[in-house]
Automatic annotation (TrEMBL):
Name of this protein: Protein of uncharacterized function (DUF3421)
Superkingdom assignment: Bacteria
InterPro entries in the record: DM9_repeat (IPR006616)
Signal sequence residues: 1-19
Entry keyword annotation includes Signal: yes
Keywords carried by this UniProt record: Signal
One Pfam family recorded for the sequence: DM9
Length: 179
């Protein structure tokens, strides 16, 4: 009886030891649900990251296998080791638009101003950066420095188009009809 139990125990132990290498573990990449914000000059896809820097929360860029967040700030490109990658689903429906009246707040500057993520064409790439209310530029990080660009798009809430709406009573009808 003791031999049968010992043999059964050994069989289970040996089979589990040999079976372990055949178990496949798949790690889910933190970039699986990340927001794609651009494409680097080497073709790498760039994703949104957020990093704390000098008492602020700054939007930045990261890419697969990099493990850091590059942030434009004060004329330089800061490389930050501790950062978060927001899930793109948390933004709901969004568009990249030139007008930033409907921009989604991504961070907060040292002075408390909201920060928005923007993207600009630069050196054959689409680089993400930051902008804020009343500022008509997109500051990107590139090659160790902060670069100010003038033509850019901002991550914005998707606007609904209302079709067939009636003008509420009491509102002036400033519409022009052409026949």
């Amino acid at each position: 009886m003791f031999r049968a139990i010992a043999l059964l125990f050994m069989t289970l132990l040996v089979s589990s030891v040999f079976a372990y290498p055949n178990v496949h573990h798949h790690q889910v990449s933190p970039l699986t649900n990340a927001l794609r914000t651009g494409t680097d000059t080497n073709g790498a896809i760039l994703y949104l990251c957020q990093a704390k820097l000098f008492g602020s929360i700054q939007p930045g860029k990261t890419w697969a296998g990099y493990g850091r967040c590059n942030v434009p700030y004060g004329g330089k490109e800061y490389v930050v080791d501790q950062f978060t990658i927001p899930n793109q689903r948390s933004f709901g429906q969004f568009n990249w638009e030139r007008d930033h009246r409907s921009a989604l707040q991504i961070g907060k500057d040292t002075n408390g101003n909201p920060l928005f993520v923007c993207q600009a064409n630069f050196n054959g790439s689409i680089q993400p950066g930051k902008t804020w209310p009343g500022y008509n530029h997109c500051n990107i990080s590139y090659a160790g420095r902060e670069v100010i660009t003038d033509y850019f798009r901002v991550l914005s809430r998707q606007q609904e188009i209302i079709v067939g709406s009636k003008i509420p009573r009491g509102q002036p009808n400033n519409m022009h009809s052409h026949y």
